[in-house]
């Protein structure tokens, strides 16, 4: 159904990055969004019979990092065609209200970026 369930956390992930679809996530065009646009996209998403999708927090997003993988640093059997770049989390940066946290799936590092920058989006449901 285009979702991946993490049996340890119980989180249900959209298999494809926003804008992509199909069993190998090769249909469509991958989208980038500002942080606010990413939050809004999650609020309106209806997929696989669910309407409670959200942007993952930093901890949840970082849980997808597969340290034995590089470029992308994610298991691409489960998450095909993941961009080798930054994906937004819902976690704002406490030290600078203009920034929010993201994860770079090229190397698995997390970083802060300006909320007005365009980054990729992967949605989740369940959990917190």
Layout of strands and helices, then pairs:
Layout: E1 3-5, E2 12-14, E3 20-21, E4 27-28, E5 32-33, H1 35-44, H2 58-62, E6 86-92, E7 99-104, E8 110-114, E9 119-120, E10 124-125
Antiparallel strand pairs: 1-2, 2-10, 3-4, 5-9, 6-7, 7-8
Helix content: 10-25%
Distance between the termini: 22 Å
How would you spell out the order of helices and strands? EEEEEHHEEEEE
Assess the beta-strand content as a share of residues.
25-35%
Number of strands: 10
Structural class, by secondary structure, is: alpha+beta
Strand neighbour order, sheet with most strands: 1-2-10
Radius of gyration, in angstroms, nearest whole number: 13 Å
What number is the mean pLDDT? 96
Shape: globular
Biggest sheet architecture: 3 strands, antiparallel
**What is the count of helical runs?**
2
Give the uncertain stretches in residue-range form.
none
């Amino acid at each position: 159904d285009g979702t991946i369930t993490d049996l340890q956390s119980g989180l249900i992930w959209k298999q494809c990055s926003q804008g992509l679809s199909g069993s190998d996530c090769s249909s469509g065009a991958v989208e980038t969004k500002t942080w606010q646009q990413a939050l809004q996209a999650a609020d309106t998403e209806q997929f696989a019979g669910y309407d409670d999708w959200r942007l993952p927090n930093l901890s949840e997003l970082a849980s997808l990092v597969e340290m034995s993988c590089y470029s992308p640093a994610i298991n691409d059997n489960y998450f095909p065609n993941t961009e080798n770049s930054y994906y937004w989390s819902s976690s704002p940066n406490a030290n600078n209200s203009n920034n929010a946290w993201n994860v770079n799936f090229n190397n698995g590092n997390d970083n802060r970026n300006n909320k007005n920058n365009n980054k990729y989006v992967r949605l989740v449901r369940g959990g917190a």
